[in-house]
Design brief:
Helix content: 25-40%
Largest sheet: 11 strands, mixed
Order of helices and strands: EHEEHEHHEHEHEHEEEHEHEHEEHEHE
Bound molecules: threonylcarbamoyladenylate, magnesium ion
Number of helices: 12
Strand order of the largest sheet: 1-8-2-3-7-4-6-5-9-10-11
Distance between the termini: 55 Å
Shape: globular
Radius of gyration: 20 Å
């Protein structure tokens, strides 16, 4: 199959992408978080093709993308007031809500759950595309399963060339990590995945929220988890990743002492001078969490070569968007962390 390259800046390309989606084809779509691998979320066969193209386990459900917040009521029932409050504040934007699903959504989309994840993305061309397609668009991140999510059309092409009908190129994704997922079906809202909408923003609106244990640490493969995707080892390059915590100086001392040829360092822009000769890659500025989230997956992709066996990574601490960056990096590192201040 020849993968068409379309531009989100051309109305006729958006219309063509919508037509392809209506016909049950696969189209990669830009969003403010990461690129999505889109198909008609109400068409069982189209959805099946997403799993095939990604090599994704069948028990990992998909997010439905809508063009307007009000479309939520056509795919979910028993929608609590909190959902509308969140929609009012954060949609369109990088927030996904898990709610009870209506019967029109096929089991393949939800992996048989009685809930569905829904998001109204911020990217305008994509919302127009969804409106033109006239159906909710199921879209996981547009990477091969087990690879970092894609944040540019070139990354999508690298993973998906020949496996999907088209890519709508909307440039680089501004947030760069996947959406925040909040489950609203329990007694208390539960954060399943941190992202561009921060825990602080959610708590300011909802009061105290629960944090799912999959966010906090490694989950074994046979564990029962609320977000089925959380149990798979995600976003991991082929190298072993170690997170080195502590001050810039302590971390550099620790890493330089152990660095061997073929290793790599993933650090903050400000730290580059500390790693001369240590194959450093900067993914953003320590003081600008959004620059780190925007750059993280591209950097992990660059470092994902068979030659690199060990990556020493610097990780932001604290809340806000840094919390999401830390979560993704820790997952890539299988939660292996070292505090350089405590090591010789
Ligand atoms: O930013 C994003 O969310 C991107 C863009 C394309 O919108 N999409 C994305 O999709 O990250 P994906 O499939 O890579 O991740 C969706 C996550 C998975 O971990 C999945 O298990 C979880 O959402 N999920 C989907 N439906 C769910 C449900 N009903 N209950 C709990 N978790 C669910
Ligand atoms: Mg994904």
């Amino acid at each position: 199959m020849n993968t068409l390259q379309l531009s989100a800046e051309k109305e006729e390309d958006i219309a063509l992408a919508a037509k392809l989606l209506r016909e049950g084809k696969l189209v990669a779509i830009p969003t403010e978080t990461v690129y999505g691998l889109g198909a008609n979320g109400l068409d069982e066969e189209a959805v099946a093709r997403i799993f095939e193209a990604k090599g994704r386990p069948q028990d990992n459900p998909l997010i439905l993308h809508i063009s307007e917040p009000k479309e939520l009521s056509s795919i979910c029932h028993d929608i609590p007031q909190t959902a509308w409050l969140l929609a009012e504040h954060f949609w369109p934007g990088p927030l996904t809500m898990v709610l009870p699903v209506r019967d029109l959504v096929p089991k393949r989309t939800t992996a048989g759950l009685d809930t569905v994840a829904v998001r109204c993305p911020k990217t305008e061309a994509t919302r127009r595309l969804i409106a033109l397609a006239g159906v909710p668009i199921a879209a996981p991140s547009a990477n091969r399963s087990g690879k970092p999510s894609t944040t540019t059309a070139a990354h999508v092409l690298h993973d998906m060339d020949g496996r999907i009908e088209a890519i709508l190129d909307g440039g680089a994704c501004e947030v760069g990590v996947e959406s925040t997922i909040i489950d609203l079906t329990g007694a208390r809202p539960r954060l399943l995945r941190p992202g561009g909408i921060t825990p602080e923003q959610l708590s300011a609106l909802l009061g105290e929220i629960d944090i799912d244990r999959a966010v906090l640490g490694q989950i074994s493969n046979d564990a029962v988890v609320r977000a089925p995707g959380m149990k798979y080892k995600h976003y991991a390059p082929s190298a072993e990743v170690y997170i080195i915590q502590g001050s810039s100086e302590a971390a550099a001392r620790y890493i330089r002492k152990r660095f061997q040829s073929g290793d790599a360092v993933l650090c903050f822009k400000e730290e580059l001078p500390l790693y001369e000769g240590c194959n450093p890659t900067a993914y953003g500025s320590r003081d600008d969490a959004l620059s780190l989230s925007a750059g993280l997956f591209a950097a992990l992709r660059d470092l994902d070569t068979p030659e690199i066996k060990t990556i020493y990574a610097r990780c932001p601490e604290g809340g806000g968007v840094a919390y999401a960056v830390g979560n993704r990096l820790k997952k890539a590192a299988a939660f292996r962390t070292v505090n350089a201040e405590e090591e010789p």
